[in-house]
## 1
Amino acid sequence: MKNITILVPDGENNLSSIVGAYKILKRANSYWEEKYKKTLYHIQLAGLSGQVDFHEGLFSVKPHVHISAVSKTNLIVIPSLNHQYEQAIAKNQPLIEWISAQYRGGAEVASICTGAFLLASSGLINGKTCSTHWAFADRFKTMFPEIDVQKDKLITDENGIYTNGGAYSFLNLIIYLVEKYFDRQTAIFCSKVFQIDIDRETQSPFIIFAGQKSHEDEVIRQAQAYIEENVENKISIVELASKFAVGRRNFDRRFIKATGNTPTEYAQRVKMEAAKKSFETNSKNIKEVMYETGYSDMKAFREVFRKITGISPLEYRSKYNSHAYQDNRKQLNLE
């Protein structure tokens, strides 16, 4: 029988991703057993301690085994961490070494949300792509600059290593793994039982862009502030560079180094974040929002909005604006 091992790192990390992964994978296993009269996987929790407490002792998890008792596994699931990443990494060095050894021995590894910090510290994804919670992607890049962070991606799948985006999007990763490790029918069954959308590919609609300010380039910080204060205007990057007395090529280079975006990409993200907030909070139509974010070409506005959010302006407004949502329900005679 093959093995799936869900890790329980030391420290008050994320309980829901441990419980959720265990419940869904166990249900997939029992469905397979009912259908084919055969148990496919031995699923267990493993850690460094006999008991790990969560939420100031309100909840506790008692792993089935110590990691030393697992000589070989087929899939390792790393749960998400709390925000004390350096502390979590320091506390769990034996766990990190065990993950590396298991991967070298043929195991695959899946990290949930900020579990990517634990995975990254193993060195297994140096030079590879990785996703994590969008809110902590910049910190991740700072700690692990050799890893290609794809914060728009819901799931990455590369060389037997899977990572996913933030929070409860881990449910989508587990369904993805169910399809990989069981079959499509089992994944569909679990998606229906647990009411999880199947085949979702992006966390872009959920990203709140706050600007990348954790750098020391004061000129670029001033340029960022100028862009953010002039959302309604069409900004010329040539003029912006000139305003701060920096040559265009050097300006682009410094901007990318400081923020991870080109000046044009940064301006687009700022404008689209303003458009998102407008769609969420008022009844303005798409054309009005387009004009107030400095666009005059509807096609260009729609293309940039979809590129950044993964959905169209109309879809976004319908989904997140309560008045638009109620109007749609009335039109569909749902009320």
Note: The first helix runs from residue 15 to 36.
## 2
Amino acid sequence: MTETVNSQPVPAQTRSTADGPVRRHRAGRLPGRQDWSSWPHYRAAEAGFRGYWYPVCFSSQVGERPRAVTLLGERLFVIRDRGRIYGMKDRCPHRGVPLSLGDKQFPGTVSCVYHGWTFDLETGELKAAITDGPLSPICGKVTQPTYDVEERLGLVWVYVGDGEEPHPIDEQLPEELVGNPAVVGQRIQARTGNWRFACENGYDEGHAKYLHRTALWRLFKPMPVWNTTKIVKRGRWIYRVQREQHWEADFPGLGRWSGTAWYKARPPKKVENIGNTASHRAVNPTIAAQEFPGFASVSMPGVLRIAYPTFIHYEFYVPVDAGNHLYVGMMAAFEKGVRTLPFYAKYLGAVRWLFHGQFSGQDKWMVEVTDAPPEKLYRPDDSLLQWRKLAEDTTEERLERLRAQGIEPADATAD
């Protein structure tokens, strides 16, 4: 007995019983993409894209002792001196001991715990080798690599580039967070799994309707069974624009599947693009002023934005290395003064553990177990394809720009 798979005959294993032959094993039919060679820069960005600002920790977590950080596979540390935060490579060039094990013996410097090599935090210059005396001849001959660091939104951001002058961080933040008063609730969690899987999960069109149907955050909300959408590019963002929402569907030969239930709110009668389902709440003026084409959008180097009527949810997928990332979840309400108090109560009382906890924990689980490529994508995965194209095109533009400046970037695709 044989079968055909992709027009090729494949033997099927059988065994005999009193009732006749019984199939034991049948070869699968697994067409699809075997690798990501269509997007060489994206494929090479296993440990992240260079040339961007990344949030690495809360500002409150950085004091006058070094705090070790791994970002894009690079080990560095951040430290505060007289109110300002600095970043430096976390390896003493003398014997390779982590500088984050050291401390500040003099203002504006950090000293290695091993032999007291002391580096200027601003310039990285070796200012003293304490155990070789004040006139050590090694001084002036060693300069430690440093990193540009900024503080925004209660977070410490580090720029990893190829020696170019970093762009202003405000050019990379979501536009509505620059210049508008906002109150934010945040969570940072170290997670297993590649950052690209986390970003693709966040922008994925289909999973929320099925995976998150058991999340407490969605318990009383109707969810579409399936959507039709289009991807719209505006500036540096691409948006998922909902065109149709189907709340129930009959699947031939199987039965009916519904995203509604007697205990859930009634589904909206028209398609909305602020929130993934319509809401009776008035849209906050700051959010309305953005005129978002769709409620879900993504930008480089891996920033997700989900616009709801009264708040916006952001996720920053920060590459630690090829197998680990930081999940930085942020919820922002554009209020000030006493109007921020209800947000604090709601966030700390419910949203932090419902949304940034159990709901996001389902995504964490999926990212940990994702294993792609190979992959066979389906119609809703146009969102993933468009994200990969955005990453590819944006990276190509950056590399061309650096080479025009005489800078040869560390482009893994050239290996």
Note: Residues 341-369 form the longest helix (29 residues).
## 3
Amino acid sequence: MAPVQKTSRRDFIRNASLGIGALALSPALAQLAAAKPAKKLGIALVGLGYYSGGQLAPALQQTKNCYLAGIVTGTPAKAADWAKKYNIPEKNIYNYQNFDEIAKNPDIDIVYVVLPVSMHKEYTIRAAQAGKHVICEKPMALNAEDCKAMIAACKKANRLLSIGYRLHFEPHTIELMRLGQKQVYGKVKSIDTGNGFTYGGDPNAWRLKKALAGGGGLMDMGIYSIQGSRYTLGQEPIAVKATQEKTKPELFKEVDETVFWELQFPGRQKVTGKSSYNHDWSYLKAEAEKGNFELGPAFGYGGIDGKVNGTPMQFPQITQQAAQMDDFALCVIQNKQSRVPGEEGLKDMLVVDAIYRSLDSGKWEKIG
């Protein structure tokens, strides 16, 4: 059952950029809605695949702190189409050979890396060295060591780095964090969460190549389940035990299909999670001493739904990517750290690395 909307999505966005209703949700959203920057910051999208074209570019038509200023693509036909559709001047269009020339372009303040995972490290570092602040899509990198190098490069260049964790700006998710971290219903005793979809796309896609993606369902979908456990508790896990199943080895030759794990936290909660490229999952359920709360669907681009003790949450849907990018632009303007900095991506990758070690060893593995 979907939550009752107090305002329509269209009215919600039109009335307050992030929504009048959002002002009551959290001080963070209220601060963002109230901010009035002197000028919009320019964002250049690096990589014009489905997420850039289907989510980020449309969201940038709704933002108030930033706008789509440039693009980076290796496909001339895409460059022409995007230039026409979004009125992007030729001087703000780059390819992967002349990318570093972006350093000379004052129109572009932020570079958003939306490339295969294997390219995240290189283009995050190059963007920072070009003097641009960076948003990098999740998962942050192939492994934790690459994450550390990216963080170090941005710090050396005195540029801000944020990871594309859009759900940290989503109202139902913010409420889930509050309920868990503030122990509104007492200490959380257990969490169960899963995220996945049934892959039916190109069998030769980069997501199925280990060298490009780093892994399969765990890297792509499992990162949300890991994040969900961490932000519900407000704690960092210390160990993990994992198993996997593969029912389509011909398709998932190089990467994982379905992975199950148990995380050990300092508070000794029972925390289980799973990810898949062969199951349609999107939920997080938390049991506390005096109640329960859940999200389901929990991790999509829209239609997030939540319940507290069986009663639907009464929050509106927002354009998550618009809220995410507006917040980062405000961080750049105010020279303050993002709530989802590079360190947040590193923490997830430390868990992912440990899960892969556990799959190999069959044992509990320490995280970190």
Note: The radius of gyration is 20 Å.
